[in-house]
Amino acid sequence: MAETKRYTGGCHCGRFEFEVDTDLSTAIACNCSICTKHGLVLTFVAPEQFTLKKGTQGELTKYQFNKKVIDHLFCPHCGVESFGTGKMPDGKTMFAINVRCLEGVDMTTLRPTPVDGRKF
């Protein structure tokens, strides 16, 4: 059963903080090169489910690779990618949230769905 909750999150140094409403049962573990190297576990939300509370998106460092459809956003101070932005297959804007950057989440209780991002 889906359960959307509000979480707070941010980067390591605290320059960027956000709130997000998401259902962590939808989390994925992608095996693409960047997700593998960063150990990302992601959940995706619509813009209305995400609020940047501290810092601005323009202050983050952007990195794109492969098809350049996702903006991987990093804190320029501590280097943590707490979220990114991009387009869903239907063209709608989305936020990709790094679940490991959410406060109070016990990662051992999650069962992220494996995604074969290497084939894209």
UniProtKB/TrEMBL annotation:
Zinc among keywords: yes
InterPro entries recorded: CENP-V-like, CENP-V/GFA, Mss4-like_sf
Name of one Pfam family that matches: GFA
SUPFAM superfamilies in the record: Mss4-like
Transmembrane segments: none
Keyword Metal-binding: yes
Domain CENP-V/GFA, chain residue ranges per copy: 7-120
GO molecular function: carbon-sulfur lyase activity; metal ion binding
Keywords for this protein: Metal-binding, Zinc
Protein origin, superkingdom: Bacteria
Family (UniProt): Belongs to the Gfa family.
PANTHER family: CENP-V_GFA DOMAIN-CONTAINING PROTEIN, CENTROMERE PROTEIN V
Protein name: Uncharacterized conserved protein
Source organism of the structure: Stigmatella aurantiaca
